[in-house]
Design brief:
binds adenosine-5'-triphosphate; 30% helix; four-stranded antiparallel β-sheet; 10 strands; 7 helices; binds magnesium ion; six-stranded mixed β-sheet; 244 residues; single chain
C-alpha cells in the first residue's frame, strides 16, 4: 500500500526527510475543579515518514494525551503540533475533521467495532466522508481486509471473530482511507500472546510498506519491534531507543 505518492521511502536516508509530525513546546494542562493537572510539559518531537515509534511509560504519564493531540482529537494548551505542515493547534474544526478522515488512522485497545455490522461494513464506515463511488469503496474495503489477512471473514460480525481478528478488522478500518500515519493506543492490551504476535506481524508489514506507526504500549515485546522507542513520564518525552 502506498501511503501517498510524495512520501519518501524509509530507506532514502540521504533525502531531506520532512517530518510528518513536528511538535514544539507542547503543553497540555487539564483544569480539574480548582486543580491544574499538567499532562504534557513542553514536548519537542519530530517524527519522520516511515518510522515505527513506540511510546512507553508509567500510568498517568501523558501517553494518551499525546496520542490525542497527534490524532487531531484535541489541541495543546500551548505550543504547536504540525502534521504535514498543518498546525493542529490553529486549525479550524473542519480542518481537524478532514485530517482525521483522510490522514490519520486510529486503533484502540478495545477494537471499537460496531457489533451489528459485518467486518466489511465496519471497514467501509471509514470511507463514508471520502465521497467515493460504491465500486471504489468495495474494492478498497476488500483490499484492506486482504492486507490484514481477513478477506475470508468479511461477512462475520465482531462477535463471530477472535480478539486478534477483531483487532485486524480495526486495523483494516484504520488503513482503508490510506492515511499518512497510524496511531494506536495499547493495540495488543486485550490480547493473549499469540494474538499479540498476529497483530505485531500485521503492523510490521504495514510499516515495511512505508506506513508511519506511532504505538502507545506497556508491552516491551511490542517496543522491541519499533525503530524508535520513546518514554513519556511526568509529561516529558525521552528517547530510550538505545537504553532498553
Ligand atoms: N480529561 C481529563 N481531565 C483531567 N485530567 C486528565 C484528563 N485526561 C487525562 N488527565 C490527567 O492527565 C495525566 C495524563 O493522563 P493520560 O491519560 O495521558 O496518561 P497515560 O500515560 O495514557 O496513562 P495510562 O497508561 O494509564 O493510560 C493524568 O494525570 C490524568 O489524570
Ligand atoms: Mg492511556
Amino acid at each position: 500500500m502506498t501511503v501517498t505518492d510524495t512520501t519518501p521511502a524509509p530507506h532514502e536516508a540521504d533525502a531531506p526527510l520532512a517530518p510528518i509530525y513536528r511538535l514544539a513546546g507542547v503543553t497540555r494542562t487539564y483544569r480539574q475543579k480548582d486543580r491544574i493537572v499538567k499532562a504534557l510539559t513542553g514536548v519537542d518531537l519530530d517524527i519522520a515518514a516511515g518510522e515505527f515509534v513506540t511510546i512507553q511509560g508509567p500510568t498517568g504519564g501523558g501517553k494518551s494525551t499525546l496520542l490525542q493531540l497527534l490524532g487531531a482529537l484535541d489541541r495543546p494548551s500551548a505550543g504547536s503540533v504540525l502534521l504535514a505542515g498543518t498546525d493542529i493547534a490553529q486549525a479550524s474544526p473542519a480542518e481537524l475533521g478532514r485530517l482525521r478522515a483522510t490522514e490519520i488512522g486510529f486503533v484502540f485497545q478495545g477494537f471499537n467495532l460496531i457489533p451489528t455490522l459485518t467486518a466489511h461494513e465496519n471497514v467501509d464506515m471509514a470511507l463514508e466522508p471520502l465521497g467515493l463511488s460504491r465500486q471504489e469503496r468495495a474494492a478498497r474495503v476488500t483490499e484492506a481486509l486482504v492486507h490484514v489477512g481477513l478477506d475470508d471473514r468479511a461477512d462475520h460480525r465482531p462477535g463471530e471473530l477472535s480478539g486478534g481478528q477483531q483487532q485486524r478488522v480495526a486495523i483494516a478500518r484504520a488503513i482503508v482511507k490510506r492515511p499518512r500515519v497510524l496511531l494506536a493506543d495499547e493495540p495488543t492490551g486485550n490480547l493473549d500472546e499469540s494474538m499479540r504476535d498476529e497483530i505485531l506481524t500485521v503492523l510490521q508489514a504495514l510499516n515495511a510498506e512505508g506506513l508511519t506507526l506511532i504505538v502507545v504500549t506497556h508491552d516491551s515485546a511490542v517496543a522491541r519491534r519499533a525503530t524508535r522507542r520513546l518514554r513519556l513520564e511526568k509529561g516529558t518525552v525521552r528517547d530510550i531507543t538505545r537504553t532498553r
